User: What shape does this take?
Amino acid sequence: MSVQLKTREQVKDDFYRKGITVKDWAERNGFKYTQVIDVLRKPGPCSYGHSHKIAVLLGIKDGVIGE
Assistant: This one.
């Protein structure tokens, strides 16, 4: 089963369409605003830690969130 990933720009557009801010999403999901904005601004792979979790939850990375 293939997962349809979003681009960082699509994620930002989704926030705009839903009327939520990056800060709102970060707080609702237990992350710092700066962590989420780093994932959305930097083109890196988000391989570990918080950046990995954020990228998976935002739908820009196919992955599993471990404990």
User: Anything to note?
Assistant: The chain has one domain: 8-58. Residues 23 and 33 are 5 Å apart (CA to CA). The chain has a mean pLDDT of 94. The radius of gyration is 11 Å.
